[in-house]
Design a protein that fits this description.
This protein is globular. It has a 6-stranded mixed sheet with strand order 2-1-6-5-4-3. The protein contains 4 helices and 6 strands. It has a single domain (about 35-140), classed as Nuclear Transport Factor 2, Chain: A. A hairpin with a 5-residue loop joins strand 1 (about 35-45) and strand 2 (about 50). It has about 140 residues and is α+β, with helices and mostly antiparallel strands. It holds the Pfam family SnoaL. This is DUF4440 domain-containing protein.
Length: about 140
């Protein structure tokens, strides 16, 4: 009989990482989200200007958390190819923060992660349908 303890695969560890990252977003504490990144980690969304370092990463998270006080992120799946992980997510919330119009959004996207040696996100490239997001924000 083999021992009861089995070694978890790297993929299983990354699924857990993704679940904890999701919880960090839902904690509404921006620094929790930023802590999943290397000190000099980057997040680029839809080919925009990257957030570089934990301070800017936390500011990026804060902007969503303030605009959508009831935001809820779910992890849809996690895939791996060529050493990069794709974290697929769905974001739901009501645009009721400062300047908000009360419209609800429900959109999905993914982040492609390159991890560093410490097991933190070094580079994240995020993608979602910006036109659909804008249409929902406008309530159309």
């Amino acid at each position: 009989m083999m021992g009861c303890k089995t070694e978890r695969s790297d993929y299983d560890k990354m699924v857990e990482f993704g679940q904890e990252y999701t919880e960090a977003w839902n904690s509404k504490v921006p620094e929790n989200m930023a802590s999943f990144y290397a000190e000099d980690g980057t997040l680029t969304v839809n080919k925009g200007t990257p957030a570089v370092g934990r301070k800017q990463l936390a500011e990026t998270a804060q902007s969503y958390m303030e605009a959508f006080p009831d935001m809820h992120l779910t992890m849809d799946s996690l895939t791996v190819a060529d050493g990069k992980y794709r974290y697929y997510w769905t974001f739901k919330g009501t645009y009721s923060g400062p300047g908000g119009n009360g419209n609800r959004v429900d959109f999905s996207g993914f982040e492609e992660w390159t991890m560093n040696e410490e097991g933190l996100v070094q580079t994240s490239v995020g993608t979602y349908d910006a036109e659909e997001y804008q249409r929902q924000l406008a309530g159309k």
